[in-house]
Amino acid sequence: MKFEVTILGSSSATPIFNRNPTAQVLNINEKLYLIDCAEGTQQQMLRFDVKASRIDYIFISHLHGDHYLGLVGLLSSMHLNGRKKTLKLFCPPPLKEIIELQLKYSETTLNYIIEYVFTDATTKGLILENQDIYVETIPLDHRIPCTGFLFRQKKRLKKLIKERIEELEIPIPYYSAIKKGSDYVTPDGTVYKNDTLTTEPESPKSYAYVSDTIYSDKYLMQITNATLLYHEATFLHDMLDRANQTHHTTAKQAGEVAVKANADKLIIGHFSARYKTLNELLDEAKNVFPNTELAVEGKTFIISE
User: I need a surface site. Which of 121, 150, 167, 231 has the fewest CB within 10 A?
Assistant: First the structure.
């Protein structure tokens, strides 16, 4: 099962040369999930060959412009390109009014339905379940209501041992039940235990997207053991006072979160425009949590294959 994330934008507040504000796209079993949609996201999608027609789920963490100001343009382009499929939008409740106001004054009636699922920044909650994943909100501590998102794979079925199945000449109609854990019983009553016919699947993987937040232990339990953790790291630690004032996190603190959460890997992003190069931010986080990488635009991180 494919499970990977591509970075479309990694800057905070304002775009700067070679860095756009926040946007990411998850590919989960060839379904695309857009996470945040800042100004310029459509251009980044074109640049990195992300087809808008394949996006059926959009998640908006909060209503600061560097996380959603590209959304209305994207919705409009989907309309102009003839979209008919329903789009699911997971977002703070006021975003519905913002979108409807823009559509009202441009006299636009979309060709497709937007199905709104409103997030609650005060408590974690399951907001999506399909055949591949569960998605939960992560309550964060920012200047305005803000949530992260936790994407967790569903447990996969057991894998058939091909040689053993062929050796016993087990009919195809039995495969599904065996994958789900059943033993195989032959017509003469011989029982073949499931563990002789299958191997266990890989443990489910997870992606934790921690958007804008002040450093906090409140969300640690929810993201514990994340396979891949994205965490904002707006400032270097010498600007801790500014980070606290604006309810953001430093690169050092992002590394500390990854350590406490026992994450396998950390990606840091949401960099302040004051930093023209990012090596210092990376070094600061890696000094605490060595398995850290930068959210470089256009880079794809494999969570599971």
Answer: 167
Backbone phi, then psi, for 83, in 5-degree steps? -60, 140
Cα(104)–Cα(75) distance, rounded to whole angstroms? 14
Q: How far apart are CA 28 and CA 3, in angstroms?
A: 5
pLDDT one-digit tens code per residue, 264-290: 999 999 999 999 999 999 999 999 999
Q: Which of 228, 226, 232 is nearest to 22 (CA)?
A: 232
Residue 165, C-beta contacts closer than 8 angstroms, at least 6 positions apart? 175, 178, 197
Q: What is the pTM of this model?
A: 0.89
Give the closest residue to 256 by CA, choosing from 213, 216, 296, 227: 216
Region at 98 (left for phi over 0; alpha for psi -120 to 50; beta for the rest): alpha
Name the residue with tokens 């937007």. 114
Torsion angle in degrees (nearest 10) through CA of 100, 103, 106, 110: -160
Where do the domains of the chain lie? 3-156+205-304, 159-199
**Domain 3-156+205-304: CATH superfamily, name plus number:** Ribonuclease Z/Hydroxyacylglutathione hydrolase-like (3.60.15.10)
